[in-house]
What we know:
alpha+beta, 2 domains, five-stranded mixed beta sheet
Amino acid sequence: LKYSVQFHAEAIIPLVIGGRLMGIINVGCRKDGLGFDYRVLEIFDLMSVQFAIAINNANLYEGLARQNIKLRELDDLRRQILANVTHELKTPLNSIIGLSEIILEGADGKLSPEQEEHIKMIYSSGKRLLDTVNTLLDLSKLEANRLALDVKRVSIKKMLDEIETKLPKKDEVSIEIRVKEDAPPVYGDERWISKVFGNLLGNAIKYTPKGVVYVDCDRMGDMIKIGVHDTGIGIDKNTQKAIFAGFRQGSSGVGREHEGTGLGLAISKKIVELHGGRMWLNSEPGKGSHFFFTLPLKPDSIPFAEIPTHLDSNKDSNKGASGSNMYS
Length: 328
């Protein structure tokens, strides 16, 4: 023992595990004054093993709990720094973009072709960096659970028709919206659902050198399953395991072909889960990718969302041409 201690006991049982003393059990004398026979001593041996394991497990659990607290504190600090930095970047970026637009419009006089090209580069680079900053802000809100959904009835067909006009165009890639006019409306936040479509369709176009990108949907009980498909380069099995983790792309490294933060899928998955749905994919290298996600057909399917009262009260009266019971 580390210290000299006087014990008054008939038996002292050491609690040892892995060659390390975890403690001792001090057993007093029997009332009849007799010693302990071999059967009792065997029980003491068994007890010592079990007690030592229990104490060791308790110590391990306590250590893990302390580490988890530290990790959570570091993660909170990381999110706070991320939110603060991105907020600070937005103001100067908006100034750079705004001033570039004004100069391009000729507010400071006519530009030479070379000057115009340089200002356009500043403008496009500023826009791309602002998109990255906004993406990081979205991620910090989602991770901190500070996102409040504005739940409404949303027409998937109408939303996709609007998004299609804003998508980047490729000569050898066709975009098809295979969603029927009578597809049932979903309930959710229109802005964030639009962001999910934008991320998935943008990725599909980006990673499809030639072919087709299309969207379809099908009903699954109280949810609607939406698929975003492409005939592009596909994703290998190892990358698929981490594709939703964030900062991951189908191609990575210094020499990667495509730009981007790799956060679009991570954000999209969190948004879908916030609506009570899920997201998954099927893909094979060289044969394209198929991303699927589900959204609720009823407002009460969204967890923790503040549903406006008029949605529930009008739920039965809304069944009709646009109601979910008309779509099968």
